[in-house]
Amino acid sequence: MRMSWSTIIGAGGKWSGRISRGRLIRFTAMEAGANMALMLYHAHDLTERYNMPDTLKAQYTSHLTTGNVLMSDNGRVLASIVEDELGWHDTICGYTTREQTDSKYGPTTYQAHHNSWLRSGQENFAVELTRSGLGMRDMMPVVNLFSKVYCDDDGRMHYVPEHCRAGASVTLRTEMDVLAVLSNTPNPLDGRPEYPSVPVELEVMPAEPVREEDVCVNHREENRRAFENTWSYYSLTE
What we know:
5 helices, alpha+beta, 6-stranded antiparallel beta sheet, 5-stranded antiparallel beta sheet
């Protein structure tokens, strides 16, 4: 498949960019134990964005994998997961804050440590959102790609440290023009005492047209309705 563009987001790194619909976005963990936090917005109307509650309740799940879609708060599909080598991506743990990062790994600042300071997810997202005219009020739930967190019968949340192996990948297909905002920072429940240093490769390439038998379209009736809403939107705007 022809490559369009690729980059590597290092540990603590961040990235944002607008990606047209009909693209594949492949994330690959270059070492074991990766976590890539993802926010997703409609590129042409930033008030429309990933809706975590609707995404989960419509698909009867608390985590995402192949066949699942990321729904917007307008009932459309921003992106769908078409390939996944892990089978589980966390949707409930959110991103790290400065306070959490300092408490777990020790205080660091750019002034004292320069590029070796330990970034938090909140700070990374704040910087990247500003680039697109957004701000702290636009913070939202994330999908933590590569991480597995489950709840036991008593409601306690558990992070699975051995879930992500080196070389594992997950591929999203954009169903709308999107603004993707990324932070390569630890999952808040990651119990490792050292700040994880796992680079992640990001590749963007053309996708094949969505077919009638598509696994994401047919995963649930709610998925098909969300796809139909998306197709109607583009039929009226293009």
